[in-house]
Amino acid sequence: MDNKVLAPLVCGFLAVLSSVFVVRAEDPYLYYTWTVTYGTRSPLGVPQQVILINGQFPGPSLEVVTNNNIILNLINKLDQPFLLTWNGIKQRKNSWQDGVLGTNCPIPPNSNYTYKFQAKDQIGTFTYFPSTLFHKAAGGFGALNIYKRAPIPLPYPSPDGDFTLLIGDWYKTNHKVLQGSLDSGKSLPFPDGILINGQAKTSFTGDQGKTYRFRVSNVGLSTSFNFRIQGHVMKLVEVEGSHTIQNTYDSLDVHVGQSVAFLVTLNQAPKDYYIVASTRFSRNVLTATSFLHYSNSHTAASGTPPPAPRYGYHWSMLQARTYRWNLTANAARPNPQGSYHYGKVPVTKTIVLANSPAWINGKQRYAVNRVSYVNPDTPLKLADHFNIQGIFSESAIQIQPSDGPAFVATPVIPTSLHDFIEVVFQNTESTMQSWHLDGYDFWVVGYGSGPWTQAKRSTYNLVDALTRHTAQVYPKSWTAILVSLDNQGMWNLRSAIWERQYLGQQVYVKVWTSVHSLANEYNIPSNVLLCGKAVGRHP
Ligand SMILES: *[C@@H]1O[C@H](CO)[C@@H](O)[C@H](O)[C@H]1NC(C)=O
Ligand SMILES: *[C@@H]1O[C@H](CO)[C@@H](O)[C@H](O)[C@H]1NC(C)=O
Q1: Which residues' Cβ are closer than 6 Å to ligand 1?
Q2: Quick check: keyword Zinc in the entry (predicted)?
Q3: Would you kindly state where each structural domain of the chain is located, as residue ranges?
Q4: Distance 111 CA to ligand 1 centre (A)
Q5: Residue 539: predicted pLDDT
């Protein structure tokens, strides 16, 4: 939308000079109308209410090209307010369109909102999902695949086809019942199953000898999974928009909210092969078994489905350290990814965030540095824009862990545009964590066990760590990321584990400068929905 915003400013100038200058065509616009309804499906054999988009479960795949402008009118026919968020889309200068309750008013029932955003300078495998209430437990999610623009070469031969796999844990229980249980102060039970593309079992057909790109995302609520294909290796090529060193793997761990893309060559005898996703690090193991079907196969899959890795957290952490940036590969722009020497940029601020369970008024909640987030009735972004006081606090949360009881608040971490920050996620609990930051991707420079100290910096990968939008943190361990704060706005930093997010394990990061400029942030959209104390204001 750069061009759109700049157009009125420059067109007079260009009119004068148009005989001299060639004006670059504006990036293409794609228009969508999506209607959200309830429907009934039986993914685990029992009929249950699910959320459909245009009648589909999961929702339609958004298949776009880098820099396309997306104009998507979302019509809410549910009985509850609703929003979608675009997981991993950076929304440059445009947190107005992020689709979380801190940036947007939810779309009331029988109403609509038109999102306007650009897939600016991104290539890769992303998703979208509902951010409101506990809707994610009912579906409403889908794939968001961004293909390269014509002049940009991929660092691997174009695959013969794409398979998109949205994999996640699933409950047979209605989303309102699950939410009610959380509201009453109880944790969710272990999920009932794992679905691949909304089904317990499915199959993918390819031709012998050809190479396919598998785009695998964890769209679940709480559980990491391990993914593997009988008799085939997986060559990793992309992680959440980063082109990787192309290592081959027998199996890959994918944590909640994450996406990976890898190539699989159908170089085996023509038959069917098992595709397996099974929960990781869980006492009960849930398994989804599907099929890779060779188009010339007349033989059912046979033998033992490939087993899960024998080793747990340590194995997984070692695997995570092998995910590295291909420094000579192109990014979405035609310059090498590694031309930005992130390891040499001085860190301007270190933020250490410790997660913990919290019992507040006798109810289970979760906290970050002792603060358990609650959504106000007015989105933080709108409160900030209209200068409405008392909605959020820039002093509620400390940027280092401290001792003391947890409390509820609406904390914002203030930062300055062009800061370069180090964020350490310190997991004080014995369960897996997964942290997501909106508006950015970040370098995951280190994973380690035990408490983080400054001395751990000597273990960081400051050369070819990859950038991604969601990082896992192992039990009683830490994960360190570096973030270049080049995107002004109000950005959600949250647990991707949905019970935790819902019960307070999230904050907002305000990236701000006193210079008011469209080069830094777009204007409030003319169709903005207003709610809470922003009702009646004039955008
Ligand atoms: C709702 O949809 C109509 C078109 O049907 C559109 O003109 C309007 O801008 C949409 N509302 C919002 C808030 O985006
Ligand atoms: C890195 O990308 C280049 C293309 O720019 C490719 O030729 C090379 O094979 C890739 N290297 C690795 C190790 O994956």
Answers
A1: 73, 112-114, 527, 529
A2: no
A3: 337-534
A4: 9
A5: 84
